[in-house]
């Protein structure tokens, strides 16, 4: 089977970006929306076809899913072995990601035609959306670390452009800078990791890096310990994970994600919920054989960072009032879940349950979290505020949003039968068999998630009845239809047999719901929902009283554990004052002065030799002949005598 | 000798045919029919250029007097491309009423000089080389004086003629000493008969070096350059600064690599000194020019200093980088000259201060000139960067670190003056900037080719690799 056509999946959004970007003044908004959405629609259809062919027809050889190179060109030949390629790699996780990215992106495109209606920068918005889709798809299908890195940065740029979409708003500009700088800083680790790994292995290629013979890597990795008792491979992979942690907003590099909510809500749904932020998870999954077989230490780091972030974000989410920020912390928490799942996984068969669970949760989360964000967008669209304090009783005004948001809420809480229930259960089962502490953290997070999501849900749709300036009304069909479609996915995505399709070694295994874990955890989730119901379903003073009684703790959590302030202190007080100022002095007084001196000398020399060019040909002849003889004398003296 | 072996001279024969056809056309037309000459010449030359790219066999003719190799053919093709661009760029100027009657002279004389250069590059002995050199030089003086009623143009012609006479004399003196001590004029035999550093042979080599240095305008043999460049018509100036210089650099390199390989340490030392002098002095003079042609003249002197960095290494890589650099240099310099000649043909203005505020009125031309200057300065991603970078690499590979360092310092200085016109166009304000004018299609085409070449060729690594596969070292 020739998969070369998959180039179109990636190429179409890029062409759309060029068309919309170059002609953004000439196209009408309607046309731009149609071009953007339909090109993504074609990408989506092609992805579906690819998924069908890959999973059900040609992907499986000898009972295991293979990596297929659909397309490849050598872009830069560095040495005989080391070269940078650009290509398309199809394997279970990349095909899965193609599906996830194109689905959510298509929904967001359609949704945006309604949500962004009447904005002056409408065409610019769609151009950037296309650029993002192109970059994300290029990242997903990368055949080698370097291609991934290039698209990784492109994704970062698109995210920067879209967060700062309202560039006349200072807070949006600050947020976009914060996101870009933080992730760039993390990517420094990624780059060093890539260089380390490629230096010792001599390749960037995923085929070669992740090839296995049974339970061993085919490639020999450098042995021995280097620093702090960890091997070189572990260090390289920890550094690579640092890049992933930055993109996926893992503690302590998470500070940009809440602020990134300054971007338009469809962007939050696409980039900061479903696709870009899971790039870190995808990166670890992509290199999973190397992590699990050669660098278990690095995988332990992944596990703890994931577990801690999940808990940390869930706690903060309980105290926030901005609905998008609650969702942002929830995203961080859920991604922590995915990381944790990877961290507890082993390799092969049922041992690789965590890997499968992580990918499973990535998919279901993309569906219900995109739905939550788009629903939130619909609510914000109607109420013109982000704060849940300004909301309440919206159930009767916005029935479709209410129902779809409700489905997503139940899905993320882990309500039995909905998608989140299945994927969460697999993660908990994997954690239970590997590390009890992590397991209990994960259980706690599940309870907290149910609580804060229910708090959000009840505050918006029930709670006290607000007096709105304009009566809120349901959003137009272009916004509600994507909500309905995503609600269907969020309901049924849990029934996809992931253990047959996406596993750590490509071979299907048997997985069942572990009722011994599922039942208690579901009861706990119900407990969280009940508590939220008690507090927020009807107006109640209880939450405020509790907050007041825990004043210090509450404020600390509300202020997000002061992590932002710590960063500000380190950068502004220490870096700017001490390091930057002295460097600035050196630059002004040493470097600039040297340059000025250079210019003065040049100018002086130029002034003093201008007589040479007199215009008189006899002088020219004289200089010529003298030159010949001077050289003749010197050279004959030096070389002959 | 069969007809096929005569085909080794294909470049020369086709060009000669073009010249003869033009002569016939000139004789066969009266004054009112002269307007067909220019299109005819351009079409003939374009055909000649295309024919040049057809695959060619390697071999030699006339008992080794005339050689054709892949690298020689490549050099000729590069020169052809450059001349084609110049022809397109000079269209507007040549069709001015005062030049109408002399059009065919321009083409015939120009093609003759190119023919001379071809023979010079292909030469296998000093006789062929010298004849080629003279065919290439003497008609150039006539071209420089093309606007003979202008004092400056006439002065340029006579200055070029006198200086060339002097340098030819010295060159010929050197050749005669070589003949006197070795008894041969064939390159292959001469290089065999050199045994050690004989004073008279070293002297002969230096004489030869000076003669070529004159053609490439290396310091201190460069003094004619600025006056001639300023006085000659823009098209001739661009021809002198890219084609004539490029051809001389090619043949200079070939002869140093083949004939004088025994004297490598000698000419490397001489070249180090001359490269440093050339880059530095060229830059220092360029800093204070206001006339665009004079400015580009000194810039081209400084660029010649950079070319030496590739030659000095004496390796195949070095040769490839020189050929590649000259290819890029032709495109970049012709882009710059193209804009200058368009401005000069339409408005008669030719100084940097005239460019003030031009971006407002003629944005496209301003951008073109900016790109060209960026390329000359070696700013990525324009091709000039790659050209210079490769030259530096070639020299650094052979441990000429001091030279590379000085060259780097010189690029800093050159940045300043390459950005001066850019500043004039984009930042400086002017009461009366050059008014908007519409450029004719042919000039646009000429400019477009050179700009596309300049932008694209830096990324086309197959071009460099192809050149490298043809090159040889000492």
Describe the overall structure.
The complex is a heterodimer of chains A (641) and B (474). Chain A has a two-stranded antiparallel sheet with strand order 1-2. In chain A, strands 3-4 form a two-stranded antiparallel sheet. Chain A is mainly α and 641 residues long. In chain A, helix 8 (232-247) packs parallel to helix 13 (296-317) and helix 15 (353-383) runs antiparallel to helix 19. The mean pLDDT of chain A is 86. Chain A is built from 25 helices and eight strands. The longest helix of chain A is centred in the last third of the chain and has 46 residues, at 563-608. With 474 residues, chain B is mostly helical. Chain B has one domain (4-470). Chain B has 21 helices and two strands. In chain B, a hairpin with a 4-residue loop joins strand 1 and strand 2 (66-68). The mean pLDDT of chain B is 90. The chains are: A mainly alpha (641), B mainly alpha (474). Chains A and B meet through helix 24 and helix 25 of A and helix 8, helix 10, helix 11, helix 13 and helix 19 of B.
Keywords summarizing the entry:
heterodimer, A: 641 residues, 25 helices, B: 474 residues, mainly alpha, globular
TL;DR?
Chain A has 641 residues and is mostly helical. Helix content of chain A is 70%, strand content 5%. In chain A, the strands form four sheets. A two-stranded antiparallel sheet of chain A has the order 1-2. In chain A, strands 3-4 form a two-stranded antiparallel ribbon. In chain A, strands 5-6 form a two-stranded antiparallel ribbon.
């Amino acid at each position: 089977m020739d998969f070369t056509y998959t180039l179109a999946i990636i190429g179409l959004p890029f062409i759309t970006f060029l068309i919309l970007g170059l002609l953004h003044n000439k196209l009408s908004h309607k046309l731009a929306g149609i071009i953007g959405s339909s090109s993504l629609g074609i990408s989506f259809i092609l992805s579906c076809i690819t998924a069908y062919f890959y999973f059900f027809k040609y992907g499986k050889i000898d009972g295991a899913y293979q990596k297929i190179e659909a397309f490849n060109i050598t872009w830069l030949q560095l040495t005989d072995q080391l070269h940078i390629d650009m290509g398309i790699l199809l394997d279970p996780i990349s095909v899965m990601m193609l599906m996830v990215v194109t689905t959510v992106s298509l929904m967001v495109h359609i949704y945006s035609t309604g949500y962004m209606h009447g904005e002056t920068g409408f065409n610019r918005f769609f151009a950037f959306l296309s650029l993002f889709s192109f970059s994300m798809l290029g990242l997903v299908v990368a055949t080698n670390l370097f291609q991934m890195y290039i698209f990784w940065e492109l994704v970062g740029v698109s995210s920067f452009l879209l967060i700062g979409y309202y560039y006349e708003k200072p807070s949006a500009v600050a947020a976009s800078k914060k996101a870009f700088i933080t992730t760039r800083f993390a990517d420094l680790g990624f780059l060093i990791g890539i260089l380390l790994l490629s230096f010792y292995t001599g390749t960037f290629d995923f085929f070669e890096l992740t090839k296995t013979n049974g339970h061993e890597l085919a490639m020999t990795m450098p042995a021995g310990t280097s620093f702090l008792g960890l091997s070189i491979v572990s260090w390289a992979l920890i550094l690579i994970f640092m890049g992933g942690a930055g993109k996926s907003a893992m503690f302590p590099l998470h500070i940009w994600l809440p602020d990134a909510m300054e971007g338009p809500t469809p962007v939050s749904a696409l980039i900061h919920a479903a696709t870009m932020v899971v790039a870190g998870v995808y990166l670890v999954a992509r290199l999973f054989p190397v992590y699990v077989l050669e660098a278990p230490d690095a995988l332990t780091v992944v596990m703890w960072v994931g577990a801690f972030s999940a808990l940390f974000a869930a706690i903060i989410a309980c105290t926030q009032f901005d609905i998008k920020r609650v969702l942002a912390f929830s995203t961080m928490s859920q991604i922590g879940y995915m990381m944790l799942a990877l961290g507890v996984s082993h390799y092969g068969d049922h041992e690789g349950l965590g890997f499968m669970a992580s990918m499973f949760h990535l998919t279901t989360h993309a569906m219900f979290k995109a739905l939550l964000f788009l629903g939130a967008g619909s609510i914000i669209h109607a109420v013109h505020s982000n704060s849940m304090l300004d909301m309440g009783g919206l159930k009767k005004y916005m029935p479709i949003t209410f129902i779809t948001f409700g489905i997503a809420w139940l899905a993320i809480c882990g309500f039995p039968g909905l998608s989140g229930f299945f994927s969460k259960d697999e993660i908990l089962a994997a954690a239970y068999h590997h590390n009890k502490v992590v397991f209990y953290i994960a259980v706690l997070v599940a309870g907290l998630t149910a609580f804060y999501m229910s708090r959000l849900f009840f505050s918006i749709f029930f709670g006290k009845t607000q007096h709105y300036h304009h009566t809120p009304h349901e959003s137009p069909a272009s916004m509600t239809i994507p909500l309905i479609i995503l609600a269907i996915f969020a309901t049924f995505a849990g029934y996809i047999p992931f253990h047959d399709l996406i596993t750590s070694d490509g071979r299907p295994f048997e997985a069942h719901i572990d009722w011994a874990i599922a039942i208690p955890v579901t009861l706990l989730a119900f407990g969280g929902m009940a508590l939220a119901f008690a507090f927020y379903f009807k107006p109640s003073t209880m939450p405020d009283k509790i907050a007041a009684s825990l004043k210090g703790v509450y404020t600390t959590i509300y202020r997000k554990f002061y992590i932002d302030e710590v960063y500000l202190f380190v950068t502004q007080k220490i870096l700017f004052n001490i390091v930057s100022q002295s460097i600035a002095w050196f630059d002004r007084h040493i470097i600039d002065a040297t340059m000025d001196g250079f210019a003065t000398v040049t100018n002086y020399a130029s002034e003093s030799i201008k007589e040479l060019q007199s215009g008189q040909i006899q002088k020219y002849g004289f200089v010529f002949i003298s030159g010949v003889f001077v050289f003749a004398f010197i050279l004959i003296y030096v070389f002959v005598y | 000798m069969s007809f096929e072996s005569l085909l080794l001279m294909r470049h020369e024969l086709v060009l000669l045919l073009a010249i003869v056809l033009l002569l016939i056309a000139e004789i066969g037309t009266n004054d009112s029919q002269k307007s067909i000459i220019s299109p005819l010449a351009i079409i003939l030359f374009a055909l000649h250029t295309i024919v040049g790219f057809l695959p060619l066999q390697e071999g030699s003719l006339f008992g080794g007097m005339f050689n054709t190799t892949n690298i020689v053919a490549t050099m000729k093709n590069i020169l052809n491309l450059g001349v084609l661009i110049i022809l397109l760029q000079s269209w507007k100027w040549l069709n001015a009423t005062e030049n109408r009657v002399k059009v065919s002279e321009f083409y015939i004389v120009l093609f003759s000089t190119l023919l001379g250069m071809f023979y010079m590059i292909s030469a296998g002995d000093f006789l062929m080389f010298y004849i080629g050199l003279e065919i290439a030089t003497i008609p150039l003086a006539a071209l420089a004086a093309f606007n003979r009623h202008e004092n400056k143009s006439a002065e340029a012609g006579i200055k070029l003629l006198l200086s060339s006479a002097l340098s030819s004399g010295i060159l010929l003196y050197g050749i005669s000493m070589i003949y006197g001590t070795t008894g041969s004029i064939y390159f292959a035999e001469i290089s065999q008969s050199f045994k050690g550093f004989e004073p008279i042979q070293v002297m002969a080599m230096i004489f030869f070096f000076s003669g070529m240095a004159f053609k490439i305008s290396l310091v201190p043999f460069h003094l004619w350059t600025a006056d001639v460049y300023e006085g000659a018509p823009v098209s001739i100036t661009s021809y002198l600064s890219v084609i004539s210089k490029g051809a001389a650099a090619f043949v200079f390199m070939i002869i140093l690599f083949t004939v004088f390989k025994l004297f490598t340490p000698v000419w490397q030392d001489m070249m180090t000194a001359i490269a440093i002098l050339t880059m530095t002095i060229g830059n220092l003079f360029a800093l204070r020019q206001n006339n665009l042609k004079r400015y580009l003249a000194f810039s081209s002197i400084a660029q010649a200093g950079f070319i030496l960095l590739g030659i000095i290494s004496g390796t195949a890589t070095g040769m490839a980088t020189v050929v590649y650099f000259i290819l890029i240099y032709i495109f970049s310099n012709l882009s710059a000259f193209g804009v200058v000649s368009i401005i000069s043909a339409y408005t008669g203005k030719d100084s940097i201060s005239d460019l003030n505020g031009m971006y407002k009125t003629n944005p496209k031309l301003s951008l073109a000139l900016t790109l060209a200057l960026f390329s000359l300065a070696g700013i990525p991603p324009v091709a000039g960067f790659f050209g210079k970078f490769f030259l530096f690499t070639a020299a650094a590979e052979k441990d000429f670190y001091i030279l590379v360092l000085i060259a780097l310092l010189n690029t800093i200085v050159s940045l300043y003056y390459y950005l001066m016109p850019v500043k004039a166009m984009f930042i400086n304000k002017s009461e009366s900037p050059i008014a908007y004018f519409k450029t004719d299609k042919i000039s646009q085409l000429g400019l477009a080719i050179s700009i596309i070449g300049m932008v694209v060729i830096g990324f086309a690594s197959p071009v460099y690799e192809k050149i490298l596969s043809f090159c040889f070292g000492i």
